[in-house]
Here is the input.
Amino acid sequence: MYLLIPAAGSGRRMGSDRNKLLLPLLEKPLLAWTLSAARAAQSIRWVGLIGQPEDFQDFKEIVVSLGMTKMVHFIQGGATRQESVYRGLQALPAVAQRVLIHDGARCLITPKLFDRCAQELHHCPGLIAAIPVKDTIKVVEHSTQQITRTPDRRQLWAAQTPQGFEVDRLTRCHDEGVRQGWEVTDDAALFEQCGLPVKIVEGEETNLKVTTPVDLAIAEFILRQRGQE
Ligand code: C5P
Here is the structure.
C-alpha cells in the first residue's frame, strides 16, 4: 500500500514559529512517532512525506534515524493541506492504484489501524477512519452566536485519518475541486462532493490530531501509558 503523509503545515495554533511536527514529544520529534507507526505497519511499502523545503533537512534526519531511507520519498507541499495532498497524488508512482493519506500530526496512530484501513480499501473506493462523537454538537450562526440546530448525535462521527481512496478517482475529485474552487479540510469531502461513496472504518480514540499545547501534553501522557504496558 502507498501512504502519503501531509506534514507541510506550520505551528501557528501550537504557538510555535516552526513546523509543530518537529517539536519534541518524549525526546523524539512528533513526526518520528507517526513514521514509526507507518514503518511497523505490515501493509505499508512506500511512504510519500509531504513537507516544506525548509523542513526537509530535519525530515531527512528523522527518516535516517528510523532506518527508513528506502521507503520514504520527499514531496514539496503547498499552501493548504488540500494542495499538499494534491501534489502528493501527482508524485505517486504510475502503478499506484490505491493510497492511504495520514496526517503527520496524528502521531499516536497504531500500526494496526493502518493495516485495517489498507485491508478494507481493497473492498471499497473510499474510506476514512472515524469515531462516534461523545459531545453533543451544536450548529451555530456565526454572526449572532446563536444555536440554529442540534443534530442527532447518533448520526455524527468525528473524522480522523487514515483516509484511503482509489488513486484515479481521488485525483479526478481534486481536479474538480480546483476547477470549482472547493475548499475542504479532508479528502473524503472531495469524494463526497463528487457523489462518490466513502465508508467508515472504526478509528481509535487515542488517534488524536496534535494541534494545541494541550494535545501535546495528552499525547505525552498516552505514550507514557503505552510504554508502561
Ligand atoms: O493544521 P492541521 O493540523 O489541521 O493540518 C493537518 C495536517 O496537514 C498536518 O499534518 C499538517 O502538517 C498538514 N498540512 C500540510 N500542508 C499544509 C497545511 C497542513 O501538509 N499547507
In short: Residues 6-9, 21, 50, 77-81, 84, 103-105, 209, 211 surround cytidine-5'-monophosphate (CB under 6 Å). Helices lie at 30-40, 56-65, 81-90, 111-120, 167-180, 187-193, 213-228.
